[in-house]
Amino acid sequence: MALMSQLNDGKGNALNALTARFGESLSTATGMRHSHGHDESYHPAALPDAVLMAKRRDDVIDAVRLCHEHKLPIVAFGTGTGLEGSVNPVYGGLSIDLSGMNQILRISQEDQDCTVEAGVTRKQLNSYLRDTGLFFPIDPGVDASIGGMTATRASGTNAVRYGTMRDNVFALTAVLADGRVIKTANRARKSAAGYDLTRLFVGSEGTLGIITDITLRLHGVPEAISAAVCAFPSIAAAIETVVTTIQAGIPVARVEFLDEAQVAACNRFSGLSLKETPTLFFEFHGSKASAAEQAESVRMIALDAGGEDFDWAAEPDRRAALWRARHDALYASKAMRPGAVVWATDVCVPISHLAECLIKTKEDIVASGLAAPIVGHVGDGNFHVQFVLDPERPEELEIAKAVNSRMIERAIAFEGTSTGEHGVGIGKIGYMEAEHGAAVDVMWQLKNALDPRNILNPGKMLPAHAGFAAAAIFGGQLSRQR
After folding, report:
1. Minimal CA–CA distance to 144: which of 214, 63, 231, 71?
2. pLDDT score at 309
3. Bridge partners of 226?
4. Which residues lie closer than 8 Å to 374 by C-beta, 6 or more apart?
5. How many CB atoms lie within 10 A of CB 189?
6. Nearest residue to 63 via CA among 12, 18, 117
7. CA-CA distance, 124 to 146, in Å (whole number)?
8. 260-270 and 316-327 are packed helices; what angle lies between their axes, rounded to 10 degrees?
9. Helices 354-368 & 394-413 angle (0-180, nearest 10)
């Protein structure tokens, strides 16, 4: 009781100091706290003690310094569209909402790059770029913030050609746990000077610092864009087409896989009339001639693998309808069972193991009796399972957890990863040691060096570890166990 009283007094002092500094920009209203207590995942919500609507970098600096002084946990919040509980404040504390930091600071058409504040969303950025001949290609489907996409190392449908956030962030500015501000790099396209701090912070999920602005690589808008859809008799035939296409060096922009359950859900939800078998969506970028050549090359590969009805769509409206349906796949899955909740999870494997991993996962889903459509950015070996669960039947969640665990263990056995793009958060934290082994100890050393009081998004990313003990509740010092 004395310990809890001490903790509550410390938390009260911290909130008093934050209120004195920020006034009405700081909210302790229940509704505001609830809206910042969860992302779009099934993971349980947890309320922050207060929410700060940051408007500029100085707000973040001052808030972090006060939280560091009072040992108050901090969670950075963007749009709340994550899928692994990365923004759920499991130890309470302060949620810093960065959505108001939404200025596009600089565009360079000559250098094909830009610098934006963390709260800028990908759709906002591409709308701003519309008349420049440039675009930002990373497309996770939802209109996520650039800061959140950077923090979770997001990816999406265009990754097979344009890479992930890791490949498209040149530099960033971050506020460290004690309020210091660092810029990780300059704008040069390459550098051999010093440690690659940019890559360290991309994907760190707010555990090492709070990202306030990001310098991004931009790309030229292609002269022509066309799409195609093709049905296959089996998962193996579809993935054979993907592997052959990649090995042939055909520069496809997107290759998306939908199993028969997902196709059926999309047909009903989006008004499509696709054959309900394993299906691939393709997109081709380039000149009119090169896009047509790419489509024809893939058509021949698909037909050789047993593909049927290769349907090439160059018209913008028809192409947009296909990709809208793909982006709405999560909602289509949810509509399969009124009142259901969807747990979306993902893994990524070397493409040579993709067919085996997908087929075994599909067999496991069928044996489980669960409704769980599969979609995937299969051009880079990444696929997602969307468990459609009845919240009134907790046994379904337990079955789904078992299927998910086997899928992740299978992916790691294939030298893959427990998460291709969703991030670790709290959902994948239990698989970090299986995937990284002794490297987890190094990650804890980095965390301890940059955030010794463990105030930055505690309880995320890194599992409790034999070498280090994280504070179990508000405040505390990371200490080396003897």
Report:
1. 214
2. 84
3. 284
4. 257, 258, 259, 261, 262, 358, 361, 362, 365, 383, 384, 385, 386
5. 9
6. 18
7. 10
8. 120
9. 160
Pull the structure tokens for residue 277: 């078998």
Q: Tokens for 417? A: 């990863």
d(Cα 101, Cα 36) in Å, to the nearest integer? 17
Contact status, residue 151 vs residue 211, Cβ threshold 8 Å:
yes
Q: Which residue has the tokens 């196709």?
A: 263
88 close to 37: Cβ distance less than 8 angstroms: yes
Q: What pLDDT, on a 0 to 100 scale, did the predictor assign at position 402?
A: 98
For 80-120, the pLDDT digits (tens) are: 999 999 999 999 999 999 999 999 999 999 999 999 999 99
Mean per-residue pLDDT for 352-367?
98
Cα–Cα dist 170/201, whole Å: 12
HEC per residue, the chain: CHHHHHHHHHHHHHHHHHHHHHHHHEECCHHHHHHCCCCCCCCCCCCCCEEEECCCHHHHHHHHHHHHHHCCCEEEECCCCCCCCCCCCCCCCEEEECCCCCCEEEEECCCCEEEEECCCEHHHHHHHCCCCCEECCCCCCCCCEHHHHHHCCCCCCCHHHHCCHHHHEEEEEEECCCCCEEECCCCCCCCCCCCCHHHHHCCCCCCCCEEEEEEEECEECCCEEEEEEEECCCHHHHHHHHHHHHHCCCCCCEEEEECHHHHHHHHHHHCCCCCCCCEEEEEEEECHHHHHHHHHHHHHHHHHCCCEEEEEECCHHHHHHHHHHHHCHHHHHHCCCCCCEEEEEEEECCHHHHHHHHHHHHHHHHHHCCECCEEEEHHHCEEEEEEEECCCCHHHHHHHHHHHHHHHHHHHHCCCECCCCCCCCCCCHHHHHHHHCCHHHHHHHHHHHHCCCCCECCCCCCCCECCEECCCCCCCCCEECC
Decide if pLDDT at 313 tops 80: no
Q: What percent of the chain lies above the pLDDT cut of 90?
A: 88
Least-confidence region, from 15-19, 41-45, 190-194, 332-336: 41-45
Which of these, 267, 274, 276, lies nearest to 229 by C-alpha position?
274
* Cα–Cα distances in angstroms (integers) from residue 125 to residues 77, 97, 416, in the given order: 19, 19, 32
pLDDT of residue 481: 35
8 pLDDT band, cuts 50/70/90, is: low
pTM for this prediction: 0.93
* Cα 325 from Cα 337, distance rounded (Å): 18
What pLDDT score does 3 carry? Answer: 37
Q: Which two tokens stand for residue 473?
A: 């509740």
The token duo for 401 is 């957890």
Amino acid letter for position 197? L
